[in-house]
Specification:
The chain is an alpha/beta fold. 37% of the residues lie in helices and 11% in strands. It is built from 7 helices and 5 strands; from the N terminus they run βαβαβαβααβαα. A 5-stranded parallel β-sheet has the order 3-2-1-4-5, sandwiched between helices. It is globular, with a radius of gyration of 17 Å.
């Protein structure tokens, strides 16, 4: 079965690719350069695709900085040590997963892929609205009603295997599949030398996940505290 995998180069998407590969999918990876603060995660995506193996790796560019309104695509400070703060954090990129899934859907239709895999996670999502089951269900409805493959075959099917898992559970699953998390990158605001800041939401959730999983964290952090 052919599947499109949204691959950012982070911990979650690397795990999703490993699961899809282990389940016998012919994996076509899609990574998106969207004007984010750095391209370190793209290099990580290339490493992950090479390490796990894909039939094809497409890198697509679009510039969401023309809209801004996010600390990842605008000249705004990335919040530090703020996990659990009320509201949706400024690191939310407007409609990002809607845009990414739309691109993945076009790719899937062009390749006759039966599935689109995405690493959204409701448990450790920092409250992003596009990481929730309701969003996945709604986009599946868009596929059914608004695409040729959806009308004719009720495909592609969205697969979100991490949706209800904790970060620790995700890490344990990946370790069991042989994922090398040392080649992934999750930090929103890395140091110039590429080391993770250790204090953004993504770093804090990642670090806690390794601690809770009882797995050594291979991440190089700029600060250890």
């Amino acid at each position: 079965m052919r599947a499109v995998i949204l691959l950012s180069g982070g911990l979650d998407s690397a795990t999703v690719l490993a699961i899809a590969s282990a389940e016998g999918r012919e994996c076509h990876a899609l990574s998106i350069v969207y004007g984010q603060r750095h391209v370190i995660e793209l290099e990580a995506a290339k490493r992950v695709a090479a390490a796990i193996g894909v039939a094809e790796h497409v890198v697509h560019s679009l510039d969401l900085r023309v809209f801004g309104a996010s600390a990842l695509t605008d000249d705004l400070d990335v919040p530090k040590d703020a996990v659990g703060a009320p509201g949706i954090p400024i690191t939310y990129v407007p409609a990002r997963n809607t845009i990414f899934l739309s691109l993945a859907l076009g790719y899937a239709e062009a390749r006759d892929a039966s599935e689109i895999w995405i690493g959204v996670n409701e448990v450790d999502s920092s409250g992003y609205p596009d990481c929730r089951p309701e969003f996945i269900d709604a986009f599946q409805d868009v596929i059914r009603k608004g695409t040729r493959s959806g009308v004719e075959r009720n495909e592609p099917r969205l697969v979100a295997p991490l949706l209800h898992l904790t970060k620790a559970e995700i890490i344990r699953r990946g370790v069991a599949l042989g994922v090398d998390y040392g080649i992934t990158h999750s930090c929103y605001d890395p140091a110039p030398d590429g080391r993770a800041c250790g204090h953004c939401d993504s770093c804090l959730l990642r670090r806690k996940g390794f601690i809770d999983a009882g797995v050594a964290d291979p991440t190089a952090y700029a600060t250890q505290g």
